[in-house]
Amino acid sequence: MNRRRAIAVLALLGALDAAYLLLGKLGYVGSLECSISRGCDVVNASSYSQFLGIPVAGIGLAGYVALLVAAIAGLQPRWLSDKRPDLVLTLLAGIAVVFTVYLTYAEVVILGAICQWCVVSQIIILVIFVLSAMGLRRSRA
Amino acid sequence: MASSQSKFYGALALILIVGAALIGYVAVSSRNQTSFDSEAWTAVPEGPLVSEDVGVSIGSADAPIVIEEYADYLCPYCGMVATLTVPQIIEEYVETGKARFVFFEFPVSQAENALLGAEAARCAGEQGAFWPLNRVLMGRMSEWGQRRDPRGLFRQYADGLGLDGDAVIDCVDSQKYRETVMSSQMRARQLGLTATPTFIINGRRAASAMGFDQMSALIEEELAKQ
Question: Is the pLDDT of residue A89 over 60?
Fold first, then answer.
């Protein structure tokens, strides 16, 4: 239960992080300039900040909300000892990790810029994936 | 158990409210206001200031207003002003003799491609086409900026402008303008600049991207003093 709670908290933090990046992408946060200290300007304005025409921060936000819902559902009494929430969480987080690897590659190798808020999201999703996978293994055992 | 669950949901709600409030605060406080901020600006005196001659100038030497732009070829906001604002400023103020416009490279992105783009425009200058290639590079940064090697596209753009594209590429490869571009960046750093695009209009700094109306208002402010 504590693991699913931890995932819910992390997913909420990830959703807030993604919401901040999405607002930046849409021009509601931040000024119209590129500064030495903020790689997010370069990353968030590049073509890699969109996937199939959708801002990746928006995809991230949707993903984190889905993880949050799955984690909270897994905390309901009837799902507590069920392994399906762990399966859903691992699957969602796994897809997100693959997507994150692609974005990190674009960020570091192609753009040569680091966005600290993207790094926060990368760490959060990795931890969520590890926690979900641990839960899946435990429920299988 | 039920109480522990409610405490947990309470904690989640608290995180959501605090997080949303923080984002809201940042959104409100970062509302962009374009104006001169010379009061907050102090130059960083590290050795003698790199001469203005390192920039690429257009307009009459006697013009009462000098507009300096510090830009990064990979900064999307620089691309925005290069295509939407600067051409009209040049038409309305530079070509009429009211202002002189000087462009300085300030590659804040620290990316190699930003330097290559800067060099390509300087190289096009040898064929009298700095400004046309500058505008193309700024307008199409999303196309060439992310290429592993953007030189092929530089050649295409130069050829498209009726230039000798191979000569531009040979010039880029020779890195003959690398030192000039780095000096331009040094000047920006000496002036204490940290972001692009930054405009300095008759010695007064105005940071961030702006439209023609905003920049025109700042220029008129300076013209009124003449």
Answer: yes
Q: Which residues of B touch A (CB under 8 A)?
A: 5, 8, 11-12, 15-16, 19-20, 23, 26-27, 30, 32, 72, 74-78, 80, 108-112, 142, 145-146, 148, 194-198, 207-210
Say if B204 falls within a structural domain: yes
Domain count, chain B: 1
Q: Which residues of A89-120 are buried (b: 16+ CB within 10 A; e: fewer)?
A: bbebbeebeebbeebeebbeebbbbebebbeb
Whether the CB-CB separation of B76 and A32 falls below 8 Å is answered with: no
* DSSP line for B84-130: HTHHHHIIIIITTTSEEEEEEE--TT--HHHHHHHHHHHHHHTTT-H
Say yes or no for a CB contact (<8 Å) between A45 and B77: yes
A47 pLDDT more than 90: no
The structural domains of chain A, ordered by start, are 2-26+38-140 (1.20.1440.130)
Across A6-10, B23-27, B36-40, B132-136, least confident range:
B36-40
| Nearest-by-Cβ selection for A8 from B12, B77, B146 | B12
Element holding A35 (H helix, E strand)? strand A34-35
pLDDT band at B27 (very low <50, low <70, confident <90, very high): confident
d(CA A45, CA B74) in angstroms, rounded, equals 10
Q: What is the ipTM of this complex?
A: 0.79
The residue among A103 and B32 whose pLDDT is bigger is A103
The answer to whether the CB atoms of A33 and B208 lie below 8 A apart is: yes
Residue B72's closest chain A neighbor by CA? Answer: A34
Give me the mean pLDDT over the B92-109 stretch. Answer: 93
Q: Is residue B135 part of a domain?
A: yes
Nearest to A34 among B16, B32, B77 (CB): B77
* CATH number of the structural domain spanning residue B145: 3.40.30.10
Q: What local confidence, expressed as pLDDT, does residue A111 receive?
A: 67
Q: What percent of chain A stands above pLDDT 70?
A: 82
